[in-house]
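name: query_chain
kind: protein
chains: 1
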Amino acid sequence: MTQTHQDLAALFAAHKAAVPARRVSFDRHARLAALAKLRQAVLDRQDDIIAALAADFGKHPVEVRLTEILPILQDISHARRHLRRWMRPRRVLPTLMMIGTSARIEAQPRGVALIIAPWNFPFQLALGPLVSALAAGCSAIIKPSEMTPATSALIADMVAECFAPDLVAVVQGGVEASTQLLALPFDHIFFTGSPAVGKIVMAAAAKSLASVTLELGGKSPVIVGPDANIAKAAKWIAWGRFINAGQTCVAPDHVFVHASQRAALTDALQGRIAAMYGADPATSPALARIVDDRNFARVTGLIADAVKAGAKVVAGGQADMGARRLAPTLLEQTAEDMDVSREEIFGPVLPLIPYDDLDVVLERINAGPHPLALYVFGSNGLAGEVVAGTTSGSVGVNLTVMPVIHGNLPFGGVGTSGMGAAHGQAGFAAFSHMRPVLRNRFLPMSLLFPPYTGRVKKLAKLVQRLVQ
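structure:
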């Protein structure tokens, strides 16, 4: 159903009008009940979720369970288990000048949140932020991606079954709907998508000074050291790169492999691709489709441009445009001025780049935008060098992708890869205002109020000496 600007304004107004009552009524027990209702809906509609993702992406049911359903169930379980502690006011000790007071920090709901979800993990990345919003006591309006219509329709249906429309609502539509929503003065905006659109979201939020959480992307590099376990590295790199057909914001985007390990890693990756997807990977039911024709043309164009400029395809490359399937592809002999080296690939393509000097690799990483994720395979010493010498949203050592689903780790980017953090307590904090409450018990500060007599001047100097 098409919703007009007036419809959206009325929906937002209903959410806003409910804020005062929600501050009182949407307490811990009500939030736990809302989360339990969402959990049950996910459990009851698992077959529908699998069918929707198959329609939109051709995802294998196991991949849907691992990447779309289980993360949401984990988020809900984690939030329900820890919500009492997250909500509990935190006592703060007084500083020297605050002796005579008591202080604490209380988590207050920000109010009405807008969640703009992407197409690559359309179920998880729409409902994951919702879990945090509900845990924090906020209402939410969700804008799922129009590029995954089956999943977006299912999310709208599930939300309508679970929640009152002034607590959680779904708005479907394209860019126009997003633009109209961004014109409304939300209290918090949670956006997952590209850095280019993230700038638009941030500019819109600035008009009402809304707080934002931006989960963006970028080129997430992998460094494979001379002492890496190649079999283990190949297993994790291949899985992290080719799950969801490479359409993952934290997927390994390119691999810097020590020259002494280059041939071994190439062979091991080819073996892993065959083990995961069979002799004809482009037709494997375990490999998801590229989301649409435009993105299929973009990814295959990156390969073609690289090959034309001198790169070599050492595995894969087979493409079926009608089915939007692209075999996992390994590239060698890429150059820094190629589009495949400059743009986030967001597809099942992986350049392998040999190196001799780690410092050169770190310089190259630091010369570009800060990545959302960075991965290292090798010893603790190598990992320590990389961590100390770079900046990224997260770091994975001898694994890929997993930091994004660790419930006790904040997930987010830095610079063009994002702002703020999500998941677990970090997600709760994103949708909360950490409000200080200071109470006067016997604060002697009033002794320093005007008029500034000689006695007051002496006291002021004494206090300064005590604190300096």
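note: Residues 143 and 178 are 7 Å apart (CA to CA).
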